[in-house]
Amino acid sequence: MNEPALAAITNAVGTNVGPAEIASAIGRLISDGTIPSGNRLPTVRALARNLNVSPSVVADAWRRLDHAGLLTTEGRRGSFVRSRRQPEDPGRFWQVPVNPHTYRLDLSTGTPDPALLPPLGPALAALRDQPPVSSYLDQPTLPALSEVLRQRWPFEPEALTVVDGALDALDRIIAETVNYGDRVLVEDPGFPPTIDMLELAGAELIPVPVIKGGLDPEALARGLTAYPSLLVFQPRAHNPTGWSHDAERIDQLAGLLEGSDLLVIEDDHSGEVSGAALHSLGSRLPDRVIHIRSFSKAYGPDLRLAAVGGAGPVIEAMVHRRQLGPAWSSRLLQGVLLELLTDPGTADTVALAAESYAGRRSSVIKSLVERGVSVPGTSGFNLWLEVGDETNALIALSAQGIGAAPGSPFMVGPGSTPHLRLTLATVAEGSDDLAEALADAASIPPGRRVGV
Ligand SMILES: Cc1ncc(COP(=O)(O)O)c(C=O)c1O
Question: Are residues 187 and 273 in the same domain?
Answer without folding.
Answer: yes
